[in-house]
């Protein structure tokens, strides 16, 4: 997407931002973190954070993007004439770069899984439920997957993201939802599914913890692509008449829907199959193959699911790459290809330790766990909330209210009071309680 170009339509913008939001966060990450932090209690916190903080923040990022209409390391300074505020843009870019480097590891797993199930369906490899540990233990497979994922993302971004993605999203997203509905029904009808449903939907307040709360807040930002300037970048490509207000509402609702569907697919099946909800990052990759094997044409459906899942992950990774790239090329479109190539190479190198964290480097543990866990913790629980906090303070205190009122005409005063007084306080409280505990 060229800096001086716009989305073809408002729908294009909504689909692209929904594509950025809905990805590994809702489908892969949400269920496994909910599994580690108490199921229902986590779901409740996540929904509250998404509606009370996520939605107004998404509107905030959209209004900064639409009003400022330039790349994200210059937009803050442009809106206030105070160049120091551009630091928020730099922080967002660093956050996105690190995020992309470990995001691509999981994206790579999907590609390797697709390859494996394709080979299996034509009888070239034997039936084997234990493929997940085999894949993650193999440095070559992990790195190959990561490389392919980054190469695909780079290819799409270097050839411009409007047309193909807009068209493909219109078809792929509804199909993904449909397939989710099918697997949710199958999951719910397994013997022993009820325990999982209860675990996921009924909050047990003794499961609430400060750490879980921080994760729930981080997850609500992660899933809406907040705090990286990704949404600011996409909104900077909108025409002034695009209604960002309703766009934000749609994106939040779709994102919540997909998260809940992912939970309803995974937890009932996990309890029926005797898989622990706390299984960690592998949860989805371990539960779903077994669930699909219980469906007629299961392997075919599973491959279709993996392809749609890959698509969802790619529409998020392209937003990560695009936001870094737009700041490198600064509108010089002739530099797009070479910038995409060099950035992709840098991300791949930065992501190698994360890719090896599940295999050869799995003994290297400190802080939050493996190298992968630490990168994720730093980005999701520290850098993104910090980015979000600074962005809110920026909109609430550095911008003029008239600049914002133009883009958010309805309920402006409520929203403005929220971003000035409520959100910063909530984010700071969650942060500080984590430090103290
Ligand atoms: N929202 C994406 C997901 O949930 O998978 C992750 C993400 C993409 C975060 C783009 C931040 C971003 F700028």
From TrEMBL:
Primary location recorded for the protein, binned into one broad class: membrane
Source taxon at top rank: Bacteria
Residue spans crossing the bilayer: 12-31, 37-58, 97-119, 139-161, 173-194, 214-237, 249-275, 295-318, 339-358, 378-397, 418-436
GO CC term (a single one): membrane
Matches recorded under InterPro entries: Na/ntran_symport (IPR000175), SNS_sf (IPR037272), YocR/YhdH-like (IPR047218)
Transmembrane listed as a keyword: yes
GO molecular function, one term: symporter activity
Membrane topology category: Multi-pass membrane protein
Subcellular location(s) per record: Membrane
Keywords: Membrane, Symport, Transmembrane, Transmembrane helix, Transport
Protein family membership: Belongs to the sodium:neurotransmitter symporter (SNF) (TC 2.A.22) family.
Protein name, per record: Transporter
High-level lineage: Bacteria, Bacillati, Bacillota, Bacilli, Bacillales
